[in-house]
Amino acid sequence: MRGERRRPSQVRLDDAAEVMVASGLVDVDYVAAQLGTTFGSPLEAARAVVEAGDVSPHPLFEAQWIGRRRSWQRAGQHPVLWYVAERRRRNRIAPHPLVDPRIIFAAYPEARHHPYGALSYWLSASGPGTPLPTRILPRKVSWATYRAAAVQAATQWREEVVRERPQLVGPTPALPTTLGTSPAVTVVMAAQDAGPLVHQTVASLQAQTFTDWHLVAVDRGSGDDTAAVLQGVAAFDDRITVVRESRCGAARALNVALEHGTAEHVAFLPLGREWLPDMLGDLLAHAHHSGAAAVVAGAGAVARSRHELLGGRPVDLATALLRRDAVKDVGGFDEGLDGAVERDLVLRLTRDHEPLAVDVPVLRRPETPQPGFADDRDSVVLERQLVDWDAAATRETDEAVVSHVMPLGPEPRRTVEWLGSVPREGSELVLVGVRMRRAHHVLAASIAAVIPGARFVSVPAPVSMSVATNVGVAQATGSTVVLVRPEAMPPRQPIAERLAAALREPGVGVVQPLVVDLDGVVLSAGARFTSDNPHPELFLAGLPTSDAVRIGTCDIAAPAAPVVALRTEAAVALRGLDARYHSVLGETDLGLRAQRGGLGGSILVPDAVITSRTPYAEPEQLIGAMASLRSTVLAGPPPPADRSRDQLRTAGLEVTDERNRRVAADPDDRAAPSVLVPELVLRAVEGIRESPPRLRWAVDIAAPAAQRGDRWGDTYFARSLADALERRGQHVAIDRRDARQRDSRDHDDVLLVLRGLDRVTPRPGLLNVEWIISHPDMITPDEVAGFDLVYAASTSWSARVSREWGTPVTSLLQCTDTRWFHPDRAEPDTGPALLFVGNSRGIYRYAVRSALAIGADLTLHGNDWTDFVERDQIASGGVDNREVGALYASAGIVLNDHHLDMRRDSFASNRLFDAAACGARILSDRIDGLEEIFSGLVLPFDDEHELARLVEPPYDAFPDNAARREIATRIIAEHSFDKRAETLIDDAVRALLARR
Amino acid sequence: MAHYDVAGELRPHVRGQVEALAASVDTLLVCTTASLQDSARAWLAERAVLVERANYGYDFFSYKVGLDAAGDLTAYDEVVVCNDTYVFALDSYEPVFAEMATRPCDFWGLTGAERVAPHIQSFFIAFRPWVVGSRAFTTFWEEMEPISKRRQVIRRYEVGMSRRLYEAGFVSDTYFVETPEDRRIARERMRWWAAHRSHFPRTRAEVREWRERANEPWNPARSLADRVLDDARLPYVKIDTLRYDPYNLDAKRLLELCERRYPERFEGVREFLEETAQYYPLRDTERLLPTPLALEPLFPRVRYSDAR
Fold it and tell me: How far is CA A159 from CA A156, A401, A450, A463, A859, in A?
C-alpha cells in the first residue's frame, strides 16, 4: 500500500486534527480563549479548531495571514493541513507576521527538512525565552511574552465580539384592570409629506384590541395634504389630536407630540408602519408587569439591550413602549440632530434603564435603506457614547511624544506594516479597530501588546472612520497627533518629527504632508477652494512632486489627505473629525474648523511625503462627502483666500483658466449623482527666453516607484543629474517607470529618457531626448529614430550606430557626482586593500569571482551576494551612495566590471567615473577608451593572473598619489554631472529654439 | 349645482331637485349654461344664487365657476357639487347628509364607479372642509380648463378628481352601499349588456373579448338603477338611463315604475324626455345589437324591476 511505502520522516495527512497535534501547531490555551471554553487535551482542542472553521490553532499560525486564494479553499482542506503538506512552498510562506522562515532557516538550516516545516521545527527547538523569528519588531520579544499577549487578545476578542443575544421575555402577562392614567398610552406620530399613508397607519392603531390610547399626530409642515388628511381622520375619532407645526426636524415634532401627551406610556407610530392588533396591549402589559422604562419588541435584528444598541443593531421605536417620564428625564429627542434621533434617545434612555426585550409578534419591519455616503448620522450619535471629549480635554499629554492614530482597514498586512514601522522613541501608534474579523483583531491586538508605544483600541460599533479616529484621538498620550487613514503607507523616512516641528510655528493649526499615489505622482497637496464653489479641489493633483518641493512649505486652505497632523489639544477642542464624514474630506472640514476657531491655518509640508495606496476617493464617496462639506463651507466665513496662482507660479506654472469638472457616480449616466469640482487650467511659464534659459525637464528612469526603486543605480544617477540641472536653474521632475504616463508631462519642455530596461515612447510636443547609459543591446534603429536628440555613454558605439543607422547619436559619457566623489574624501591607502561596491544582480560577477579565485583580500559591499559567497565575506548589504566616495578614496584598489553588452560596446560604467574622481586605483574588465578617459587611473585585467599581479602592493602599475590626484581633478572638471547638465541644456535650448 | 336645458326652461324634476337641495343646504348656487327664460330665472333667483355663463366645458366647468363664485368654501361644513342629470327620488337631502355625517371619509358621493379607475360619480360629490382647504383640491380646480369632448371630461375631471384626492391620501365613501344581491344582479346585467355589444363570438379572440366585457366593472347608475325602487336606497335615476336604456334593460318599464312609486318626483320627466329627444340622439358608442334569440328567455331575470 501507498502508506507503507512512505519513509518514516513522511507524515500521514488524512486527519487535520492529528496533524495539528503531531506538528505542535495547536495551543490549547489559545484555542480555548478563542472559543470561550476549556479543553482536556490538545487533540480535543485540535478537533474543535477543525469544526469551528475560522479559529486559529496556534498563536503563530494564522490562516488569514497566509492569503485568501490559497488552494486549501479549493481542496476543502484545513489550512494547517495545507501548510504542513505544501512541502516546497511552505518553506517560503510566513504563517504569521511574526514568523519569518528565512530567519528560522538561517538559525536552523536543518529546519528545511523538518516534516512539518519551519514553524513546527522552530517551536520544537525554542523555549519560552527564545526571541520570535521576526525582524518587524523594534526589539526582541520572547515567545512566551507574545503567547501570553495572543491568549489575552483572543480572550478579549471573545468577550467583546462574540456575545449571545439577550433572551426575550415572554409570554405576555395579563393586563391589569386598572391602569395608572387614562388614556394609558400616548401614541406619537410625526408626519411629513406622507398623506397617502395616513389612513392605513391610523387604521392599524384604531384596530388595536387595547383602545385606551391617545394619538398625537404632529404634521411637520408637510408640502402635501398630510395635515388635511390627518384632520379628516381626527374629525371622526376623539382619541386623535392633530398638531400643525412649521417645517421642522423629526426630533422637534416628536418633542411637540410628547408635550401634548399625558399618558404614563408613550408609543411611536411613524406613518407607513402598522401594528398587529394586540401589539399595544401586549407591550403595555409587559411594561406594567415589569415597571421597565423601555419595553421593546425584540423579534428580529433590533437591539435588545444597550450593548446591542452600541453595537449598531437597528433601533425600532415603532415596536417599543417607553415611560414618558423617563423620556422627559433625558430631555426628549435631541433637536440638534437631523437624523438618528431615535437611536440617540434610546441610547440616552438606556444609560439608566436597561430595556426589556419582550417576545411580542411584530409585522415585518421595513428594510433599512442602504446607507449612502452622505452624512452618517448613526455615527454622530454613537460617537457621543464612545468618545468622552471632556475627559480627553483634561488629560495631560506628553510634549515629547507624537501619537499616530489610525483606524484599521480591512487588510491585516497594512496593519502590520504600520506596527512594524511607526512605534519608535518619541512616537506612539494607536490602532483603532472597528468591528474587525477575528484574525485581524487578534493579530492587531496581540502584536500591539508586545510593541512598546503601540496600542490597539477596539470599537464594537459600526462607526465611520472619522469616529474611529476620534476614539483614538481621545486616548492619544502625545501632544501632537497624526491622523492616519489606512490607505496611507508607512512613510519611508520618518515624518512625524517634521510634522510636529511645523506645528510649532506660530499660526499653524493643521499640517499635511505631500500625498503621492503609488506611481509617485502628487495625489493631493491640500484642498483649495474658489470663491464661488463650495467644493474643494485637490491642490497640485497630477503634478510631479518636484513642483510641490519647489513651492515649498506653504499655506493651504485646508488639508485633504490620508495623513494630517495637529496639536492634540486642538484636535480635542475641535472634537476631532466630524463624525458625519464616512471616510474622505473629514480632514478638510477639520482644517476649516480649526482656521475658523482661531486654532491656526493649514500648511503643506512637501518634504514629508506619504504614499496612498488608493485614489483620493471613489466618486460616490466624494459626492456624499462633498454634500456634507458644503454645509460646513457655506455655514461660516469663506475658506482662506486661494493663493494657488502665486504658489503655482513659484513652480513655473501659470493658471490660464478655471473650470469645473464633473465627478459622477457613473460617468456614462447623465442622471447619475454628481458634483462639480473646480479645476485649474495650467500652462508652464515659458522659460526658454529667460537668461539663463529655464526649461521644465521630465527625467524618465526605469526604476519602479516607492521603496523598491530607491536602491536602483538609475535612481541615484537621475537624482544627481536632476540636482545638477536644478543648480543651473532648470525645473526637473524625476519620473520613475510607474509615473511615465502622468498627464502633467504636457507642461514639460524636455523629456529626457535615461535608457534603462524600458523602451519609452517619445511624447509629442516635447523635445524628446534619450541618453543611453546601459543595455545597448536593447536599442533598435527604430527607437533612436523617434527621439530628437540621442546620446550614448560610449564613444565607439555612438560613432558606429550613427554611421550604420543613419541617426545621429552623440557620445555623452557617464559621469560622477562631485559632491560625493573627490580625492579629499579620504587619505589614500587607509581603507580596504581591494574593494568592490555593487549588487550581485543575481550573477556571480566577473570582478568578484576573479578576486576571490586568487584569494585576494576583497572587501565586498552589496546586495544579493549570499548565493555566491560566504556570509562573512560580505562587508555590508550596501553602502549609501554618499559614503561610497570615502571608501573609494581610501581603498588600495577599486574593482570594477561591466555587463557583457556594456563591455562589448565600451559603455564605461559610472563606478569608473566615481572611483576615478576619488583618485582611486581602479582595475576593470577591458573596454575601449579607458586610457583616453582615465589617463592611467583605470587598468584593464584580462584574467586572474593579471589581476593577481596588479592587486599586489605597492601598485607600481598605477601613477603615484600626486599624479592620481591631478588626474582626478581633471576627471572632475570634465566628467561631472554639472558638465553633462551644461551639455544637455545647451543642446536642448538650441533644439527648441530651432523648432520655433 | 350645474344646470343646462336646451330650451332654457326649468323642468319639473329640476325644480324638485333645486327645492330639495335648497331645503338642506345653507347656500345653494346654481350655475347654468342655458339661455334661461325669464320665468325660470326669476324662479331660480328666489331659491338660489344664480350664476349664468356661456355653454362650454360641460358641468365640470360650471362646478369650477360656481365654486369660484361661492367665496370662502372652507367656511362650510361640507361643499357639494352636483348637476341636473338625474331625478332625485327623495323629498329632501337631509337623510343623505345625516347618514353621511357619521361615515368617516373625506369626500363622498351618491354612488361610485370603477370604470376607468375607481372614482366617485361626479353628478353629486360632497367634500369635507379639510378637503376643500387642501392643496390637492384647490390645485385641481385652479388647473382646470374647459374641454369640449365628453369622454375627456370624464377621464380627466370626473375620474381625475377622485384620483387626485386619493393620491393626496384622502378616502371616499358612497351613500349607496351595494349588497351582495346588488352585485350579483349587476354582474348579470353586465353580461347581458356584453351580449348586446358584439355578435355571438366565433373565434377564441372574440370569446376573450366577450368575456372581458362581461367582467368589466359596472356603473351602478345604470346596472342598479332600479334600486331606486327599494326605498330609494339608490336615491336617484339618471336621465341618460331613462333616455338611452344603455344596457337594454327596459328603461321604459323603470320610468313607469318610478312614476308609480314617486309620482311627484317623476312628474314631467316623460314629457322632458320626449321634448328633448331630438337634441340627444343615441351615441354611436352606445348603440346596441338586437337581443340574440337564444338569450330572450333570460330577459325577465335581468330587466329593471321593482326590487323590493
Answer: 5, 32, 21, 19, 57
Strands A213-220 and A185-191: parallel
**Residues B256-270: tens digit of each pLDDT:** 999 999 999 999 999
Sign, CA torsion A755/A761/A766/A767? positive
Residue that is written with C-alpha cell 508652464 in the block: A684
Distance from CA of B110 to the nearest CA of A (A): 20
Residue B163 contacts A, CB cutoff 8 Å: no
Burial class (CB in 10 A: 0-12, 13-18, 19+), A366: exposed
Contact A235 B131 (CB under 8 A): no
* A107 membership: H or E segment, kind and range: helix A101-107
The helix (run of H) or strand (run of E) holding residue B224 is: none
In this structure, what C-alpha cell is assigned to residue B104?
Answer: 368617516
A68 falls in which pLDDT band (50, 70, 90)?
Answer: low
State percent of chain A over pLDDT 70: 97
pLDDT digits (tens, 9 = 90+) for A777-794: 999 999 999 999 999 999
> How far is it, in rounded angstroms, from Cα A59 to Cα A98?
10
Are B104 and A233 an interchain contact pair (Cβ–Cβ within 8 Å)? yes
From chain B, pick out residues whose CB is under 8 angstroms from the CB of A195. 168-170
Q: What does DSSP say about strands A185-191 and A265-268: parallel, antiparallel, or unpaired?
A: parallel
Is there a contact between A224 and B171 if contact means CB atoms under 8 Å apart? no
State whether A232 and B136 contact (CB < 8 Å): no
Which residue do the cell numbers 519620473 mark? A735
Is B79 a residue whose pLDDT tops 60? yes
Burial class (CB in 10 A: 0-12, 13-18, 19+), A119: buried
Q: Could you write out the DSSP letters of every residue in A711-751?
A: T-HHHHHHHHHHHHHHHTT-EEEEE-GGGGG-GGGGG-SEE
List the single residue in B166, B168, B171 with the smallest CB-CB distance to A224. Answer: B168
For helices A961-974 and A910-917, angle between their N-to-C axes, nearest 10 degrees: 130
Q: Do B104 and A197 touch (CB under 8 A)?
A: no
pLDDT score for B168? 95
The answer to whether the CB atoms of B134 and A196 lie below 8 A apart is: no
Cβ contact A196–B104 (<8 Å): no
Beta strand pairing call for A240-245 and A213-220: parallel
Dihedral (CA of A254, A256, A257, A259) sign: positive
Dihedral, A331, A337, A339, A340 alpha carbons, nearest 10: -40
Cα pseudo-dihedral A924, A928, A933, A938, rounded to 10: 20
3-state secondary structure of A753: strand
Query: B106 to chain A, minimum CA–CA distance in Å?
Result: 6
**In the predicted structure, residue A868 carries a pLDDT above the cut 80:** yes
- Cβ separation of B130 and A235 shorter than 8 Å? yes
Summarize pLDDT for A421-448 with one digit per residue, the tens.
876 788 899 999 998 889 999 999 999 9
Q: Is B133 on the interface with A (CB under 8 A)?
A: yes
The minimal CB distance from A195 to the residues B104, B128, B169 is found for: B169
pLDDT value for A8: 43
Comparing A723-732, B38-47, B60-69, B280-289, the range with the smallest average pLDDT is B280-289
pLDDT score, position A869 = 86
A236: closest CA of chain B, how far (Å): 6
Predicted TM-score of the model (pTM): 0.84
Three-state secondary structure call for residue A616: coil
Residues of chain A whose C-beta is under 8 A from some C-beta in B? 194-199, 224-226, 228-229, 231-233, 235-237
Q: Cβ contact (<8 Å) for B130 and A197?
A: no
Q: What is the ipTM of this complex?
A: 0.91
B168 touches chain A (CB under 8 A): yes
Which DSSP letter does residue A829 get?
T
